[in-house]
Design goal:
This protein is of the alpha+beta class. It is 37% helix and 20% strand. Strand 8 and strand 9 form a beta hairpin.
Length: 336
């Protein structure tokens, strides 16, 4: 099948983008994939009796507060005189939902971040998140199965159109043909020699760069679960391992880099308060969350998948800003 040549939507001006993409075949495929992901997400979770929650897009408890290890900026708005955050994630609400739905809860909705956009990061993006009873291994297994469910459905239902736009579906076939690799953060540092191009050392914790993620994908991919980050490098809500130094967390690396982040949560209020203290986050902002865990302790784990990053991988495209039908950027009005 002949591959269709398309012009990146990031070229030209925003004022005429909405007209230009009407003649771009990639955006018809993008609509097909958005529809597929919405439908197949509901199918996947219905099979597991995990319930969908209808949630607001506002919160007073952001899941990525400014503190040690935070790499996300919350978006604050004035809502009739009350400072309010637009949701960066509604993970805390999903933890609450687990106490109402025995098998867990999920949603598919927008998230808002304050950082600048780049080729792999949007200010406003769609987030597929879920929280289930269980530990880290449980959530890794279900998140991996969810991604593979989406990939298999895309191959069957949109395969020819994907080939026309992306030039291939080999990347999907390769993912489905082999299990995801798995290694710890310390193993990754050892494997890559701790090179500054691949890791950033913040003194008390280390983080992996986008180049490091892609090198791990090249060596172990197409999909790699990277687990047990330094605890202070991830948000306070991730539980510790038995050493108290490593987080019970994991990122799935695929295509452009991280596409899924997941982790095990603290069970009790006391554990959560300790984590808030260690991460230098004011506990008063999370009083309700601590009280929930104190009065209704529950072992849960959850994950979040960035929809546009998965779309980048499916379409074999290198700029996430082209994965929007209606673009949105902080501090800028766009048409329509």
């Amino acid at each position: 099948m002949t591959t269709v040549s398309v012009t990146p939507a990031t070229t030209g001006t925003s004022d005429d983008r909405f007209l230009r993409i009407l003649d771009d075949p990639r955006y018809r495929v993008l609509v097909d994939l958005q529809d597929l992901i919405s439908y197949e997400t509901a199918v996947f979770w219905r099979q597991r009796a995990v319930k969908c929650l209808h949630l607001p897009i506002t919160t007073n408890s952001v899941s990525s507060p400014m503190g040690l290890g935070s790499d996300s900026l919350p978006v604050c708005v004035d809502l009739f005189g009350v400072p309010t955050f637009l949701a960066d994630s509604m993970q805390f609400m999903l933890e609450y939902g687990c106490r109402l739905s025995r098998k867990g809860s999920y949603y598919l909705m927008p998230s808002f971040r304050g950082e600048e956009t780049d080729a792999t990061h949007l200010n406003q993006f769609f987030h597929s998140e879920a929280e289930i009873p269980g530990g880290l291994d449980d959530v890794i297994a279900v998140a991996d199965a969810y991604l593979r469910h989406i990939a298999a459905a895309a191959l069957v239902q949109v395969g020819p159109a994907l080939t026309a736009v992306a030039g291939t579906t080999r990347h999907i076939e390769d993912l489905l043909a082999r299990p995801s690799a798995r290694l710890t953060f310390d193993d990754a540092v050892s494997e890559l020699g701790g090179k500054p191009a691949y890791f950033t050392d913040n003194g008390s914790w280390r983080t992996i760069t986008r180049a490091g993620e892609r090198e791990l994908i090249a060596r172990f991919g197409p999909a790699v679960w990277l687990t047990h980050f330094d605890h202070l490098s991830v948000p306070f809500y991730q539980a510790y391992d038995e050493t108290g130094q490593k987080a019970l967390n994991a990122d799935l690396l695929l295509g452009p880099g991280e596409v899924i982040g997941c982790g095990q949560r603290h069970v009790t209020g006391a554990e959560t308060l300790d984590a808030l203290r260690r991460h230098e986050v004011p506990s008063a902002d999370y009083d309700w969350y601590v009280r929930m865990k104190a009065e209704h302790p529950m072992a849960t784990s959850g994950f979040g998948m960035g929809i546009e990053r998965v779309l980048m991988w499916l379409l074999q495209h290198d700029d996430i800003r082209d994965m929007q039908i209606l673009e949105r950027y902080n501090g800028r009005l766009t048409t329509p």
